[in-house]
Amino acid sequence: MNRNSDEEDGGEIVFGGVDPNHFKGEHEYASVTRKGYWQFDMGDFLIDNQSTGFCAGGCAAIVDSGTSLLAGPSGIITQINNAIGASGIVSQECKTVVSQYGDVIMELLMAQTNPKKICSQIGLCSYDGARDVGIGIASVLEKTHEKETLSSISDGTCTACEMAVVWVQNQIARNQTKEQIMTYLNQLCDRLPSPNGESVVDCDQVSSMPTVSFSIGNKTFSLTPDQYILQVGEGSVAQCVSGFMGLDVSPPLGPIWILGDIFMGVYHTVFDYGNSRVGFAEAV
Fold this sequence. Notes:
Residues 89-129, 154-195 form the Saposin B-type domain. InterPro entries: Aspartic_peptidase_A1 (IPR001461), Aspartic_peptidase_AS (IPR001969), PEPTIDASE_A1 (IPR033121), Peptidase_aspartic_dom_sf (IPR021109), SapB_1 (IPR007856), SapB_2 (IPR008138), Saposin-like (IPR011001), SaposinB_dom (IPR008139). Belongs to the peptidase A1 family. It is found in: Vacuole. The protein has a single domain, classed as Acid Proteases (Cathepsin D, subunit A, domain 1). Helices cover 31% and strands 24% of the residues. The chain contains eight helices and 15 strands. A hairpin with a 6-residue loop joins strand 10 (229-232) and strand 11 (239-242). The termini are close together.
């Protein structure tokens, strides 16, 4: 999939085999875990080679050429936006949760409380990490294609609490002080994705932004800033848009990532129906 609009040739789809002229090296394959949408298990997500901690235990992922951006859990997308200086709409729910429950969340985590049960324990969620959901992947993809927010899948306050728990965990693991953690949480609240999933960055700062990486199988697949930042327009009217959008799907279907055109443009993708697996290699 060629994402360079200045070139005459676009992408190519091959049935019944692969074209070796469009990739180099060997493909890394991941077994399909849910048929119909080529879903597979993805490991941790890293920013500048540092774990975000959100998908350390594994996340589901889908490769979808019908999705332009990279869609992932809002907790991770917010950390990315913070790292690259993206500006989104401030979430009042997030700041309210941090202000009213930040201390309690820290105390419960320090007391070794099960992180998945904290938000229900303090009354912000109606489940304890094992809630079933009544939404299928089909509707998730449909709404993503229409660029609609999926915040309605779970209550906004509950989602904000779940993100805060992950963020606090991450900072406690780094031995940050209470004051440092609260400052960090408020910074992340300021970086929450806008409702339609888009966040804008300073075009002059793209070269200094971090590399982001996905763990799939036994390999790490990285994207550089020029690969995950989309420039719209030219000259003084140019805008640079973050290629990441928030997508929150509760267990057992989520958390889930949708690797769209941005990822497929960098990594040659093989949909191996016969062996029920998806493969990735560096595209050329």
